[in-house]
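Intended use. Records like the one below are meant for learning the mapping from a protein sequence to its folded structure. Do not use them to infer anything beyond what is encoded.
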Amino acid sequence: MKMLSKWGTIALTAVFGLSACQKVQPAIDPVCDCKNQFVNVITSTGEWAVAPNVFTPNGDGKNDVYRFKFSPDFEVDSFSLTIIWPPKGEVYFTKSRFESWNGFVKSGTGVDAKISGQYFTQYYIRTKDGEVFSGCGCFEIPTYSSSEGCILNKKDTWIFADQFDDQTGKPTLQTIEKFCN
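Structure written out for the chain above:
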């Protein structure tokens, strides 16, 4: 059973990666059906895990990294997160729920760069109780303009990591991200 589960996850990652890499500006991924919604996982015991659908790796100390946020009593047995940038493929992978991605992508010259645009995620969470949650989503690194600041599509609802309430996991707070208000 574990072998099937493992292969199922690998197959999903492979299909997801290939379909996402074939497009330069994907609006909707056929596997994920991304609609710029934040990730929201709720266990049978009411514990939660959330991830934003936007972050700003600009070095100001506010929403500079992409990571999952877990409720205080969420007991994780296994976790993985893959981040895919369509023109390049996989740009980040971790098996630690405590790690975060700073938005850097290796360029063709070997120099790290923060590149604005839409990214895809594929996650896997197994709780200590054996519940399994796997899925995918997408998020945006916004473009910056010296005259306009952070440029985001106004028709979508953007949720930064600092907007999730620490007790409920619900996006109820005002962001401190001054460039994107």
